[in-house]
Amino acid sequence: MEGQGEKSTFHSRIYFLCPLCRKAPRTLPGHLRTSCMEGRTEEEIQTTMIQANKEMAELSHTGRFWEYQRIREIFAAADPLASMLEEMEKKGFVVRNIP
């Protein structure tokens, strides 16, 4: 039968953003231990994990919602791209490779 024995390619894992380097590694604790917080105590790493968890919860709660009037204001600005990037940053989004 089709589908039996096949592994799903969809993963429901949430990738947390590293608050130090702003990357989204597969496992934040492992990333912190081997890269951004190498040599730090386990307590410091756990504190950083709690902070990242709070940021993700805040993004999930508020980052998905936009007020229509705010979008109109952004597009009416003298430099709408800069205004949009600023608003996205305020909401917790990360925009990379900005020239």
Describe the protein in words.
This protein is mainly α and 99 residues long. It has a domain at 28-90. The chain is 52% helix and 0% strand. The protein contains four helices and no strands. It is elongated and about 50 Å long. The model has no long low-confidence stretch (mean pLDDT 86).
* Largest sheet composition: none
Order of helices and strands: HHHH
Radius of gyration, taken over Cα atoms and rounded to an integer in Å? 18 Å
Termini separation: 51 Å
Quick one: how many beta strands? 0
- Stretches with pLDDT under 50, minimum 5 residues: none
Secondary structure: helix percent = 40-55%
Strand content: under 5%
Number of helices: 4
Shape descriptor: elongated
**SS content category:** mainly alpha
In round numbers, the mean pLDDT is: 86
Topology at a glance:
Blueprint: H1 28-36, H2 42-63, H3 68-76, H4 80-90
Helix pairs in contact: 1-2, 3-4
At a glance:
This protein is mainly alpha-helical. It is about 50% helix and about 0% strand.
Keywords summarizing the entry:
single chain; 99 residues; mainly alpha; 52% helix
